[in-house]
């Protein structure tokens, strides 16, 4: 009885598919017909799963394949129900394609280009697509490794236009989107999620549809693999851009007229939107944010009120950034992370002009920077060329964005904390030390101290930080003085120069803040006790087993008795004891 029922179901489903492939249903019955076809495909899939011999798979395959090609060729007549049917057929191809010698990869790409590029705004298709990709994530990564990396911009359209119900499914899928060719482009894509919402809303208003001009065009130039050559070229371009920006090279050709300025802003915004609306990964986008009026142009495009979709993007993007950064620290190789850092430095001050969103996104970026440098301290040595930016950041005659100044302070702290990359990077440490010297001497000799406005809500709690409310220049000099002391402790050949620097600060009590010259004086005193100096200021990089290097992170489980309490208590004068830590260690030995 069961066999007869299955045979009747099989015959009915095959006839229905054959009829659908030959003839198009009447418009009045199209929806009902599509529902019947979807159920037929699912029924055939279930029957193939129950068939242990595997003969049924070969019998069903010709009609399934014709149906797939029929719906993919629908073009402008494609309906959301077609997308659901194609997803059911793709599941059949993924599970049984090997049995009938069917390569699923072209079919998957055809679905993205011909169907999803038109139907991504439909809630049912969007949810079904994310569920399909999550369900088959392992198989796709193993046998179609470049698929998700190539089409991640199209998936970002789904989450940009969809509601919060899709958030969890997309967050589950995001780690699978990270690949060698997509890792770098993913970062600006996440940061520009609010801009993508504006681009989609603008497209709908202007054309009445959400199908971009290039939406269904097959692109044959996926992003190239990241290489050190590409990184070096990108990094040099970045430094040149930042150098021009801080020395007035960009936008210094005179004021534009009002009409020309508006036209330029509109052109730049349209170019950004065109890049964001692409369906396939073509590598790193153009540097539209180098246009100085981009934030203002986006503010105008947003209008007076924020749409619900835009508010959703503001909430979601920082969460996606955190997932992206977690995957980067866990799975991505050092060369790609090192290539990401210059892009991150540049985008810290190039974000959508919403205060809450930009504050949260910058916080995530800076936390990732410190985590990456902690995990791989040698990045500091590789990125030592970033020192070229520091003189511009700390000169008072330039208007420096708060975010960029805060990033420079955090990098300054990391240079000292990780010894300029460790004891094996002496050349890089020397260059970084010279940069810190330059910053210190410029601030000491300047009659007008650099004033960098840092508000309490952008404060990052990092070791060595001062309390909020301390004058900006004092905070800067405390970072620099501490970095100089730490760097010279790790690289002993820099000690003479460090003593000269600290002595200059200690003698400048009428120029600098009291906290700065007291700190410099304390560091000078520490340098007369090498063992204590190493325990307090020594870098954890490369010295973990050094007898005088204390692991402060172990303080919750181990007793730490070598802290110079007279320093922590800010008492005046020399220590009240006459022994050094080296004497204690020798006695214990």
From TrEMBL:
Which parts of the sequence belong to the AP-5 complex subunit zeta-1 ARM repeats domain? 33-157
- Supply the Pfam families for this chain: SPG48, TPR_AP5Z1_C
The protein, known as: AP-5 complex subunit zeta-1
- InterPro entries per UniProt: AP5Z1_ARM, TPR_AP5Z1_C
For the keyword Membrane, the answer is yes
Which keywords belong to this entry? Membrane, Transmembrane, Transmembrane helix
- Transmembrane ranges, per UniProt, are 140-162
Organism of derivation: Marchantia polymorpha subsp. ruderalis
- Indicate the segments forming the AP-5 complex subunit zeta-1 C-terminal TPR domain, all copies: 302-540
